[in-house]
Design a protein that fits this description.
Strand content: 15-25%
Number of helices: 2
Structural class: alpha/beta
Number of strands: 5
Helix content: 25-40%
Shape: globular
Distance between the termini: 17 Å
Amino acid sequence: IHTEKLADKTIIHLAKDVSFLNKGELKRVLQGLENGKPVVIDASKSRFIDHDVAESLAEFRQQAQYRGIAV
């Protein structure tokens, strides 16, 4: 997981394989995002995303609106 902070948005680049071992780091990154700043989650190079990680991403997407974060 690599985070790129730009002036107008944050881009989170996911690895080729995202296993449950990455879930803790991903949650830490998502929780640390700036309120009101758009985020792009780039999974274009991901070949595998663990079900638990996918659920965490879906949960974040639902809750992001309450923080003013466009996903």
